[in-house]
Design brief:
The complex is a heterodimer of chains A (about 240) and B (about 375). In chain A, strand 1 and strand 2 form a beta hairpin. With about 240 residues, chain A is of the alpha/beta class. Chain A has a domain of about 70 residues. In chain A, helix 3 crosses helix 4, helix 4 packs across helix 5 and helix 5 packs parallel to helix 6. In chain A, the strands form two sheets. In chain A, strands 6-7-8-3-9-10 form a six-stranded mixed sheet, sandwiched between helices. A four-stranded antiparallel sheet of chain A has the order 2-1-4-5, with helices on one face. By secondary structure, chain B is α+β, with helices and mostly antiparallel strands. In chain B, helix 1 crosses helix 12, helix 2 runs antiparallel to helix 10 and helix 12 packs antiparallel against helix 13. Chain B is elongated, with a radius of gyration of 29 Å. Classes of the chains: A alpha/beta (about 240), B alpha+beta (about 375). Chains A and B meet through helix 1, helix 2 and helix 3 of A and helix 1 and helix 11 of B.
Chain lengths: ~240, ~375
Amino acid sequence: MRSHSVITINQVNHYYGSGKLRKQILFEVSTEIRAGEVVIMMGPSGSGKTTLLTLIGALRATQEGSLKVFGHELNGASENLLVRVRHNIGYIFQAHNLLNSLTTRQNVQMSLELHEKLPLSMRQQKSEAMLEAVGLGKQIHAYPDELSGGQKQRVAIARALVSHPKLILADEPTAALDKKSGRDVVELMQQLAKQQGCSILIVTHDNRILDIADRLIHMEDGWLTSVENTNRNIEETTRPLLPVS
Amino acid sequence: MIYAIPLAWLQLTRRKSRLIIALAGIAFAVILMFMQLGFSDALYDSNVRVHSQLQGEIVLISPQSIALSGLKSFSQRRLYQAAGFEGVKSVSPLYLDFAFWENPENHSSRGIMVIGIDPDDKVFGLPELQQNINKIKYPDVVLFDQDSRPEFGPIAAEFNQGKLVDTEVGGRRIIIGGLFKLGTSFAANGTMITSDLNFLRLFTRRQEGLIDVGLVTLKPGTNVEKVLQALRANLPNDVRVLSKQEFIQFEKTYWKSSTAIGFIFALGTTMGFMVGAVIVYQILYSDVSDHLMEYATLKAMGYKNSYLVSLVFQEAAILSVLGYIPGFALCLGLYDLTRNATLLPISMTFSRGLMVIILAIVMCCISGAIAIRKVQSANPADIF
């Protein structure tokens, strides 16, 4: 039995600009990502990787083709639906993008504020537990500018995962980190995501982390050129796909 | 949804020095507005010092009178008629005119306001006046306002040393019999009060029985409005019947409409408002710019635009209230300073305090509304 498809992309084209300056960025992109799968997308700069990532993340309006995330068609979706889809996605950016005025725990908690009607004490507890899981149990009251690059990225992972998203989107998560901490961060992300049964899509240039992927996809000049399975088998997941609340 | 993390507050207080500078700017704008409004109220109030001290509920004047400095006399018979109405306890005539006062020291002349009253009636509520009221029963003895401008000469100082102070007013020699405290106004740089008989001795062209202001005192517990209506209905229209409050308003309206005071201070207040709005806008705009990436991240996480909009307005509201407090406190001191330096009746009132905090909040909200356009530009797709 194959697991559910979290993302289904079918014949998606995307353009920037208008009129004579209109430039096509994505060409007939089709692929899918299943629940629990870790996919790494590679390709040179300017090939359209990030554009695809923002389309999947419901941060940009889909122009042509069909893009389904958690079963919701995003082409022509209302702003409300886009916002609700975003609630179920955890983002990890190249820069950590933490809120500098908040402590690490408050940063993680910001992600929970949006979700279930959890009482405040529960939100704090969950956030602390998540920081514990990424190895920052002692830094819950630290501010981002008091942490190292690797620690900040781990806070970002905690923030992305604390609300149990169905999908993690990561854009160059290791770019600002040295080899060791880059590796640690990605392994941590993969390990925690597996525990939660959540899918991961990573855009990266970093060859050192390719082995954590179940599947690699290549993007070149807006075309998805090849899809290859890595040695590892896709683990079947029994986690049912919940409708977007 | 209730958010447990007060992000607006945390963002403002994270950088203390920046917050303090911001609050200093807002406090400055608040002080500017307080001072302008205070000055304008004080100037209006100074022009109704005589009116406010009148010990009566109803005032009669000629319909042709325009202000204290432009009174037209009317027949005292109207006042006696008023005395016959139900509820009226007593009536009292006032003569009021301007004459030249000779400075006894350097013999320069200056216009002074002269008020003639019946020494047996309690016309003014000034305590020093009541103590010395019997002295004006003597011919050519007057009481002098010690808060008059210094150009009238060192009258109060010499009088308090026990010297006999005399000078010429309108060509007639008068003697200072005592002092009282009233203060200056636009109409009068100085004031002296004497008996109606002495008044007529000074102003020989004035006729006895043609008075400038008629004061009506009512019996305790009488409905002022009823007597006002009865007087208006039954007295001929060669006399105008005003309540004391209307008389005060009558004078203020004259100064508001015929001088530039209102305009000048409204302009000053507007300037304070604008300065404050620009300062708050600068603060909010740079705050939003600094956090634009963070706001875009929040949007990517699923926070709506409305959350960010309310964030900016919360910051605006916090700034306005926090800036108002030191502004208010400093203003109390500045009012004291101004009162001592200028003798203007300037002080904090509840309504002005309320007015300025409303202005401060409106000011911050307008700035917030402009700064919000910047927040809308936080595009979550740009942070990848």
